Every structure is written in C-alpha cells, then in structure tokens.
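A favour, since you know our structure tokens better than I do. Could you add the entry underneath, on a fresh line?
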Amino acid sequence: MPIACYHAYGLMLASDVLLPELPLAIGAPDVWIRLGVVDVSPSPSSTQGQFGWTRAAESDTVIHWNQVATFLVRNGCEIVVDPAPGAAEALVRIYLLGSALGVLLQQRGRLTPRRQRGRLRRWRRGFPGRLRPRQIYPGGRVA
C-alpha cells in the first residue's frame, strides 16, 4: 500500500517514498514507486561512469548511483527504489525525481531529446529578453 499519491508531469504517482517536493493528489495512479531490492551487478553492456552505471533493455532500465541508490524503471509505469545503506533521503529523492523519473517519461514517450531541443529553441525565440549578454562594439552598435 503506497504512503501517498502525488501529481507530476501530468501523471498520478503512488509512492512508498515520501516526496514532499510534489503536490499531493487523489486518483488512480499511472505510476507506482516502490521500495525494493534491485540487482546491483552491472552487465558488460552497462554504461559505466565515475559516479555509477546504467543498464538499459527493451522494457526496463537500471540506474545505479554509487552510495545513493539503485533504481529499476519498468515499462514506463513502475520505479523500484533500492536506497544504499546510510544514504540521505533527500539525496535519494533528487535522483528519483530527476534521473529515474526522466527515464520513465522517456519510456512513456513523453520526453525525447529531439522534442525537448525544439521546445527550447521555440522558447528562446519567444523569450522577450536576451539569454546571452549583449556585446557592444565601438560606435555603439549592439549585437
């Protein structure tokens, strides 16, 4: 039984992990966030990094952050969280709401790098201010 239901990115999240950063909600959950044990052994096909590794398959992805947690994201509808011993809850939530939820959104087809790049470009065009500092040339010409 989940502790609470939250609303984020247009999804209802039923979670065993307290997420005070998200607004509480009532309704049928689209995503389940559960505490559990995740296999922590990287395979030869895993992507290794300085702070952890990831292993992606067709329907699930495992994200391991050293000394924080391991997350299993399945079928765009479930995240299993396996916190490391002694890991701060706030740190686990940062990676849960960042990397793990990002993978889940990508599995659901809601977040793709190409689309996000296009949205950013449109946003920059419509932004009334400048996102880079102005350069003033001799003679007062502004670029």
